[in-house]
Amino acid sequence: MADKKKQFTKVNQLRPLDTGLSLTVKVISAKMVAQRGRSQVRFSECLVGDESGIIIFSARNDQVDMAKEGNTLVLSNAKVDMFKGSMRLAVDRNGRAEVVEAAGFSVDESNNLSLIEFEPIDVVV
């Protein structure tokens, strides 16, 4: 079996409900949202981006510790979830997030994909 090179996606290429994504992003800001239940589920919303744009990343549990302002993350097998009509980037248990050395790119904060509202359309066949 030949090794398949991982195809990295840019933030501006993300679309609603995309799955199996690999991205390298820099954390712009992070805000702890909730710590719930006896199991202490931690949840944080982080603004992350690359040279093509920014999006909100929903960090859970161990990912919260990695998603600190200024860190560069490599997200593998990430997905785009929809929350109140806008896109959120997430990595579930099938994916992986890891901190890497600072990447040499500047983040384009003028293109925030999480501010775009999408409306569900029902198609009757």
From TrEMBL:
Domain Single-stranded DNA binding protein Ssb-like OB fold positions: 14-99
InterPro entries in the record: NA-bd_OB-fold, OB_Ssb-like
UniProt cross-references to Pfam families, sorted A to Z: OB_Ssb-like
Protein's name in the database: Single-stranded DNA binding protein Ssb-like OB fold domain-containing protein
Species per Swiss-Prot/TrEMBL record: Salvia splendens
